[in-house]
Specification:
- The chain is mainly alpha-helical and about 220 residues long.
- It has two domains: about 5-95, no CATH class; about 105-205, no CATH class.
- About 55% of the residues lie in helices and about 0% in strands.
- It is built from eleven helices and no strands.
- It has helices at about 5-20, 25-35, 50-70, 70-80, 90-95, 105-110, 115-125, 155-160, 165-175, 185-195, 195-205.
- Helix 8 crosses helix 9.
Length: about 220
């Protein structure tokens, strides 16, 4: 997922690097005249009266120095970002963005052959954020709602316990040759994850319009 904070930090550290290189621009020349008259960017400090932009640049300078162990290590790091085919901002973004622990369902939820809206709904379901009625108790009762949903989690009803969805799920499993009993969301994700190689060929047929109608 795109991280806005890391993206902003990558732009700021790019300005730090431009200041180090004395990049030829009006703003860089102003910085050297106003903030760096008798100093270099690696030893300058931010004061209470300094602009928020300058404080952020100095903060990131100190962050990279702490990470690399010295200002020379930080310079070497950014010099590497500035070389090669990938752009400086791409390397900086990957440096600052957080890396979460991998989850087992990632490849099932974000399948390349799934429609984006379907991926998003499944992702909300896995995160238990799907806005089903049991999560919206302030809504008035609906006489058309299945009575079983009043006693159980609506997420379980939507995907497995409802008579209609159970029938549809059974048809899908039969068409995909899935013999595993999938009675919960996580058992379904587990089964689809390990049967992925066989499923891809069948799902590719659907994308080509050679699918089987579920009647």
């Amino acid at each position: 997922m795109f991280n806005i904070k890391a993206r902003n930090m990558s732009f700021l550290v790019k300005q730090l690097w431009n200041i180090h290189l004395k990049f030829d621009s009006v703003w860089i020349r102003w910085v050297h005249h106003f903030y760096l008259r008798n100093e270099i960017i690696w030893t300058a400090s931010a004061h209470h009266s300094s602009s928020p932009l300058w404080k952020s640049i100095i903060f990131l300078r100190d962050y990279t120095i702490q990470h690399c162990g010295s200002q020379y290590g930080s310079i070497a790091l950014m010099s590497g970002w500035n070389s090669g085919m990938d752009k400086f901002l791409s390397h900086a973004y990957n440096f600052f963005r957080p890396f979460d622990s991998p989850v087992s369902w990632e490849r099932v939820v974000w399948e390349k052959w799934s429609l984006p809206k379907h991926c998003f709904i499944l992702w909300l379901t896995v995160q238990r954020k799907l806005q089903t009625r049991d999560r919206l108790p302030f809504l008035p009762s609906d006489p058309l709602v299945c009575s079983a949903s009043m006693r159980r989690s609506r997420m379980a009803i939507c995907f497995f316990a409802c008579e209609w969805t159970s029938y549809l799920w059974g048809k899908i499993k039969s068409w995909l040759w899935i013999g595993r009993s999938m009675t919960t969301l996580y058992s379904a994700l587990h089964g689809l994850r390990f049967g992925k190689s066989n499923l891809e060929a069948r799902m590719r047929r659907v994308s080509l319009g050679i699918g089987v109608y579920l009647t």
